[in-house]
Automatic annotation (TrEMBL):
Cross-referenced SUPFAM superfamilies: CheY-like (SSF52172), P-loop containing nucleoside triphosphate hydrolases (SSF52540)
Signal peptide feature range: none
Residue span, Response regulatory domain: 17-132
Gene Ontology annotations for the cellular component aspect, listed alphabetically: cytoplasmic side of plasma membrane; cytosol
Native source species: Sphingobium fontiphilum
Domain of life (superkingdom): Bacteria
Keyword field: ATP-binding, Nucleotide-binding, Phosphoprotein
Entry protein name: Pilus assembly protein CpaE
Pfam families: CbiA
Keyword tRNA processing among record annotations: no
Length: 429
């Protein structure tokens, strides 16, 4: 994941500030900074907490040196520092704790270097020179592989969109070895974290309530790690609490995901398409999860039409989920005829396997690996990656003929229901 401090921004700011705890470090830093052409008076007494207090009311420098010797909780204090640092600040820390785990955690949080006290002039000079080179270096080039954003949308409740979203996220992260973010936008009843036996945390609700706080550091702290390559952002907001948002927080989250991950999978409730249609503007692949039923056929047609108008850049994959043998409510052939396109993937129904996945706290794809369901998810993942990497031509190939009447197509669906099922699905006049 990207560090919260992203070198390369060129906003006007002081070249260097330092906050140190002891006289030896203070004197040495003044000498070396003067050699490098920086103002010695920018070296201050006081350590990390003094730096947080000072930078909360003043601009961050290009390079910041902080002494953590007096910090009782270095990682927590570094996170506090990150909240007041402007993006682009290169941070060097110093301390007396000689612990490789602390060093790794600090580097993972965005620190450029960690010097063990007492340090010498040459060591300090090398660290500052390297920090200066990092700050002046051009920003990272675009990744070789374009970011893949997959939105999974269910045609009906119970179609299994959440199961597909969690399984695709697991496949992308574990089988394809791509750093992946899973965003569950059902803030009250989402099951992404539950499916992997994780606590959802408050990350998503905090993002909705305070969208201005969303940045690389927020992503690092708020997301729940399912593995080294998979992180989840979800919520279990109180059902008595209505979370008001214009969708800006969701859009900002997806922007940060593009910087920090190679793939994003969004469990997208259907209502989000109505409330926040702009969330689909940068989606590469839209997976429509459906069952082979009359109502699902109707809503698949409606979703395909919506995608063609509102998200033409997205490649659309239709996945028939929970398909039961010997015959579903509507046959595959009739379903495909009604939506005027092929179903891309069929995922069989297996009640025992689904129950086992729930008990183990694993995704269905992981539990079913080696079987037919696992193979179906592997095919779906390959199709999604292939679709995302296709040219940005006519992506939303819904197969709908020009001039067709949506109302007429839905009416035609009545004839597709087998006679034995007609009484179960009242169609009205």
């Amino acid at each position: 994941m990207n560090a919260p401090w992203k070198p390369g921004l060129n906003a006007p700011r002081d070249p260097f500030h330092a906050f140190v705890c002891d006289d030896h470090s203070y004197d040495l830093l003044r000498v070396v900074t003067a050699e490098m052409g920086w103002a010695p008076e920018k070296v201050h007494k006081g350590g990390l907490r003094n730096a947080v207090q000072s930078l909360s009311i003043s601009a961050s420098p290009q390079i910041l040196f902080v002494d953590m010797s007096e910090s009782g909780d270095p990682l927590n204090d570094i996170n506090s520092l990150a909240e007041v640092c402007e993006p682009g600040t290169v941070v060097i820390a110093a301390g007396q704790v000689n612990d490789v785990r602390l060093y790794r955690d600090l580097v993972a949080s965005g620190i450029q270097d960690y010097l063990l006290k007492p340090f010498g002039a040459d060591q300090l000079r090398d660290a500052l020179t390297q920090a200066q080179a990092v700050f002046m270096a051009p920003r990272d080039a675009a990744p070789e592989r374009p970011h893949v954003t997959v939105a999974v949308i269910g045609t009906r409740g119970g179609a299994g969109a959440s199961t597909i979203a969690t399984s695709m996220a697991w496949m992308l992260s574990e089988k394809k070895k791509r750093p992946t973010a899973l965003l569950d936008l059902d803030v009250h009843f989402g099951t992404a974290a539950l499916a992997m036996d994780l606590e959802p945390g408050r990350g998503l609700t905090d993002a909705i309530e305070n969208p201005s706080r969303i940045d690389g550091l927020f992503i690092e702290r708020a997301m729940v790690r399912a593995s080294d390559t998979l992180a989840i952002l979800s919520a279990e907001a109180p059902i008595s609490q209505a979370l008001m948002t214009d969708g800006g927080a969701f859009y900002q989250l997806l922007e940060e995901f593009r910087l920090a991950f190679e793939c994003s999978v969004i469990d997208m409730p259907r209502s989000m398409l109505i409330q926040h249609p702009h969330l689909m503007s940068d989606v590469n692949v839209a997976v429509i999860a459906t069952e082979l039923t009359l109502a699902a056929a109707r809503d698949t047609i409606r979703l395909l039409s919506w995608m063609k108008t509102n998200a033409p850049q997205a490649q659309v994959l239709v996945v028939a989920n929970r398909v039961q043998a010997p015959t579903p409510e509507i046959s595959r052939k009739d379903f495909e005829q009604s939506i005027e396109r092929k179903i891309d993937v069929i995922i069989p129904y297996d009640q025992k396997l689904g129950a086992q996945a729930a008990k183990l706290g694993k995704t269905l794809a992981e539990t079913a690996k080696g079987g037919k369901i696992g193979a179906a998810f592997a095919t779906l993942t390959d199709l999604a990656l292939g679709a995302a990497e296709d040219s940005t031509g006519d992506a939303a190939k819904t197969g709908k003929k020009k001039g067709d009447s949506l109302l007429g197509k839905i009416s035609d669906l009545k004839s597709l229901i087998p006679a034995r099922n007609k009484e179960k699905v009242p169609l009205g006049d």
